Amino acid sequence: MIIGALEAGGTKFVCGIGNEHGEILDRISFPTEKPEPTIAQAIGYFQSKQIEALGVGSFGPLDLDPDSPNYGHVTTTPKPGWQNYDLLGGLTSALNVPAGFDTDVNAAAFGEAKWGAAQGLGSCVYYTVGTGIGAGVYAEGRLVHGLVHPEGGHVPVRRHPEDRFEGTCPYHKDCLEGMAAGPAIAARWNADGGSLPEDHPAWEMEAHYLAEAVTGAILLLSPKKIILGGGVMHQEQLFPLIRRSVARNLNGYVASAALDDLDSYIVPPVLGDNAGLAGSLALGIEAAGGD
Ligand code: ZN
Predict the structure, then answer these.
(1) Is residue 109 left, alpha or beta, with left meaning phi > 0 and alpha meaning psi from -120 to 50?
(2) The domain spanning residue 174 has which CATH number?
(3) H helix intervals, 52-128
(4) pLDDT digits (tens, 9 = 90+) for 11-50
(5) Which of 37, 54, 189, 281 could form a disulfide with 4 if both were Cys (CB 3.0 to 4.6 A apart)?
(6) Residues lining ligand 1 (ion), CB within 5 A?
(7) pLDDT per position as a tens digit, 180-195
């Protein structure tokens, strides 16, 4: 069975095909332009591959309520042309196959729960830390949606005591994304994060903010794994700093053997930068009636 997978990001679209075992057989990517030409390119790719189902993990915010007239739409994004755009409808009306649809980070969480770092555990929280920050939540064996979907990139965080940076989020200024996404690092230090040395104080500050969010997720959701992916997390020196800061935050309060071994609990994605596409494939398999 050939299943299509689309990771619809704010800066690029990744289209691929795979099988029901989660193997990705082919992929292409192209920049995210205005909706119509971007969708047309994706449709052309999937038509040429004769897919039998499709899974879409998209940038958001999204309407994920199947009973809503706007199900499948991108909603309040600041991205020009994409506000209230019917992404899922545009794809399925042309491709005419069953389709699964979720946020890009929920898709990544799903991929890691099915085939990656949280395989067999039944729960995980997946953060992507890059141009923006998002969080996908998988709990009790399913993706969490609720009111709309988790917006874990915008949770409030306690300030680092030495940080005077005001924050970049257009909605909240100093939420997690406003303090810790790639553009916030660049604006605070007046340098691209990738150019800062491993021992630069930027990373201890970055770890502080990510640890704030991770601590909140542990306390609220009690996930069996925390997975941190995205471009900023390629700075591997962040992992020990985040674990140390989380341990300090929790201060021994939550009794769990998993939390005594944070090296195994707070981890990078096993699927690496494929987590989003693999998760979209998993959504497609689910839409096709598989498991
Ligand atoms: Zn925000």
Answers:
(1) alpha
(2) 3.30.420.40
(3) 87-95, 104-115
(4) 899 999 999 989 999 999 999 999 999 999 999 999 999 9
(5) 54
(6) 154, 169, 171-172, 175
(7) 999 999 999 999 999 9
